[in-house]
Amino acid sequence: MYRIEARNLTKTFKTHKSRPGLLGALRDLFTRQYTTITAVNGIDLLVEEGEMVGYIGANGAGKSTTIKMLTGILMPTAGFLRVNGMDPHRERERFVRTIGVVFGQRSQLWWDLAVQESFRLLQHVYRVPDDVYRRHMGYVIEVLDIGDLLDRPVRKLSLGQRMRCELAAAFVHNPPLLFLDEPTIGLDVLIKMKVREFLREMNRTYGTTILLTTHDLSDIEALCSRVVMLDKGRILYDGSLEELRRRWAEEKRVVVEFARPVPVEDLNRHTADLPVTWEQEHPYRSRAVLHQGDGALVSSLLARLQTYPVTDVRVEETSTEEIVSRIYAEGMARA
Amino acid sequence: MWRLLSLFWVYLAQYLKARMAYRYDFLVQGLTDVVWQLVNLVFILVVFTHVPTLGGWSRDEILFIYGYFLVPYGIFACLFNLWDFQERYILRGEIDRVLTRPIHSLAQVCLENLDPEALFGVVTGLIIMGYAGYRLGLDLTWYDPLVFLLLVVGSVLVYAGIYVAIAAIGFFADAKTGIAPMVWNLQNYGRYPVDIYNRLIRIVLTWILPFAYVGLYPSSYFLGRETYYVYAAATPVVGAVVFALGLWAWNAGVRRYRGVGS
Known about the structure:
The structure holds 2 protein chains of 2 kinds.
Chain A: E1 2-17, H1 21-30, E2 33-48, E3 52-57, H2 63-70, E4 78-83, H3 92-95, E5 99-103, H4 115-125, H5 130-144, H6 159-170, E6 177-181, H7 189-206, E7 209-213, H8 217-223, E8 226-231, E9 234-239, H9 241-248, E10 252-258, H10 264-270, E11 276-282, E12 285-290, H11 296-304, E13 310-316, H12 320-330
Parallel strand pairs in A: 3-7, 3-8, 5-6, 6-7
Antiparallel strand pairs in A: 1-2, 1-4, 8-9, 10-12, 10-13, 11-12
Chain B: H1 2-20, H2 23-50, E1 53-54, E2 57-58, H3 59-79, H4 85-91, H5 94-99, H6 105-112, H7 120-136, H8 144-172, H9 179-187, H10 199-208, H11 216-223, H12 229-256
Antiparallel strand pairs in B: 1-2
Helix pairs in contact in B: 2-3, 3-7, 3-8, 3-11, 4-8, 8-12, 11-12
């Protein structure tokens, strides 16, 4: 069974345009002009049990709208959608028992209550039996290391502390499917690592399927075997992170520094039979652009440089961050 | 239903626990309500120092209606504290969280906003009714308390239905609407006998925004005003219908909900 099965999922919004000026406002009163915005445009998404999927895209790409449809908050305009075998919006009350939701910018906890009391309330809301709750939550609290925070009111927690409590709250009913919207936004590196470690642990122990949106690609590098990239409401890429890098990564570059000035013409002559072009940065440093991605090329290149006094070699690779921001910028053009 | 009731107690206990931290606040809030009710009471008393009767209704009868009104009103205000629903839940997006929990969204919003201080008004209302009833020499039969309960439930549902429907407008509108204050002004008319108003207001209060069912009509059963017996008997039915309409509007709103921001 698929945890998430979406086919041709679409969401459009109708908004009325307001015309400028007082006269325009007056005319709006009588005849309204509507524009239709397609936030999610016929996406297909299949997620299997136990997968950890990163859902990325620039602001306004349709990530949140998709998540809101998958969690039953919004009703899709068109398309087929089954999550945990149910129609999220129509069977909402039954459906939401089987999912956990964490919105990084919105709290699930009661502001004035101690953390523990919030958990207890959720226990009642989800009707979790006492013994199950104690065993399971004891484990969750231990992994997240929030035992000391339980008696404190939520409003007195720092962001990092609160976020860990939010995650614990989403696991009160131990859902098989978890949605995370920007779970690490604003957190420091240590807390981020703790959060990721926790998610991996839950995935390992309970086989929890996780779909997360993030702007921090290191989250995805640390957690997700699969990444789905959205642009203007359409899926631009769906596959592994490595494949994404391979497909979009630019040529590798090798920066070489010399003890004495070396003219770039000499270098080009020496490596004429290799798929390499040299660029000079300054007399002591040149950069080789490798037009072919395999590792052996680097060693052949270095072998050619034996006659030169090389002081330093650095291999430059494009980071995922750079790749992704370039894809955002280029959009569908290269897809 | 039982499930909601059990959740009600859990939420109430939590609410009180949180409130205990601000004991002083709790007291002040309760006191403010009582003072507000006393002001209304004084207003009625002052009016009657100038006129002996109001459209054929004596001071004590009007007091009785006011006392009755306070009872369903207090219960309503405790349970359906929806004043800033649009602001808090729609514009700030809190409804998203509500919609990801396995309880009806309206029940959750109500539970999250319980306002037990409003129940002070119920006590005030009962005292005023007792006083006015005593002065009028009203007799009570054994089933009158049961009738009272039934009528109060009906009245609470009338209020709830109207305000749930108004809150539901929040799902459709992008910006704040001025409908709630308008209705709020109108509801106060329900505490006085409708036959002192002109026909239009009477029709509105009976058929359109039936606030007369939260004061005059049910009270007239106890006051022995036989002209209104039919309306008094209809109170629970009107309550059920109005609440059903309110709930329908709410559910339609949830279906139409489009979310804020990205």
